[in-house]
Amino acid sequence: MADTIVLYPSPGRGHLVSMVEFGQLILKHHAPSSSFSIAIIIPTAPFESSSSSTGAEDYIASVSASSSMISFHHLPTINPLPPTFSSSSSPAEIPALTYELAELNNPNLHKTLMKLSESSKLKAFVIDFFCNASFKVSSTFNIPTYYYFTSGASGLAAFLYFKTIHENTTKSLKDFDNKLLDFPGIPSIPAKDMPVAMLDRESKVYQCFVDTATQMIKSAGLILNTFELLEERAVKAILDGQCTPGESAPPIYCVGPVSDGNDGGGGGGKFEHECLSWLDSQPSRSVVFLSFGSMGVFYTKQLKEIANGLESSRVRFLWVVRTPPPDDETRKTLPITDLSIEQFLPEGFLDRTKDRGVVVKSWAPQIAVLSHDSVGGFVTHCGWNSVLEGLCAGVPMLAWPLYAEQKMNRAFLVDEMKVALPVVESDNGLVTAAELEKRMTELMDLEKGRAVRDRVTALREEAAAATSHGGSSHLALTKLAESFKRN
User: Tell me, what CATH number does 251's domain have?
Assistant: First the structure.
């Protein structure tokens, strides 16, 4: 029987791509004659838009075509769905629904693992933390279960220590106002900047987070898409048990950056080449790239502020824009069907900026763009995959978080890693044109942006060293593979 590593990502393009890249890294590490095959179990997410679902399927097809050692296994659609899965579900409800989906999928997961075990020896089960409910299934097969944490070591330090904060207070974090929360190994975080799912201890998803932190400590190991030198203090705090007081720290494996430098299929098509061709015509390090992840959207008022900031700043720009949500101005995720972008921007904006800027609808090949010599700055939503892509390309960042753990990531990027400048929201949550203009000008200025540029350049070299033969991430991956083989 072949030795198989089973990967189980949660829904969401960022979670899927990162875990697939981890699987590809395992195979590459053991090339040319890998001793493992990779089986990836795909849940069907009822709350994903049709465009997101299509993009994921295109990506899966591309990976399948490129490697015979990776197989994908789709779980059946849950039918009927509980009433909690409503078409009117808000983005704030997605974490709770994702946890619930994993629980609902356990019977299908059991059948899939049973089928895989008939032809393969299952050496390890690697799950996304949103798939925490699946731990109950893998334990019935006696498969060692590892967690793949899609954020960095700093985020993991906060997540693990969250259980201790929960045990030491009876208040919800939402009632802490602007109080700073102290964590081992990372900067203090304002309570209001913690993920929304952690703010209300009476909510179901809050308890899911506490349960996941508890279960992670009992796992066979935690796999991180980071490298040790990037987050030294956080890694040390986890290893020393500071984040899990009174309990043994689980093994951690910092194996990143896991990306192979290729952009997955995203529907760029003809315009993908056009935006790269436009970059070819721009001066070195002169363009600011604005992109907010696979789920980030803004309402119309914010889009117009961004446009006005870009126009008044006079910087060159490449801006990825999605159609804003129709009514609810609080929505910052889940793009809807794209319409014409021009109608949501200030009248005449595209014409007035056509000589120094390009607006791309919905998607651009982010890694290729960031790696282009013309790009000198990156306005990012602080999603971890995007952060690492910016670092690996040596591009300094403006940190503009939107959802999930991204406000925490901003603190890590600005205060700890010093690779980004912060974008500051006004009291109503709006980032004004004046704020964006100020920050972009500062980032691109030869003197004001020098410290961040120098730091990013140094970390780009360290990231390459970490993944090279004998580097820290390469050694961690070797140690992880050895633990798989022992199972």
Answer: 3.40.50.2000
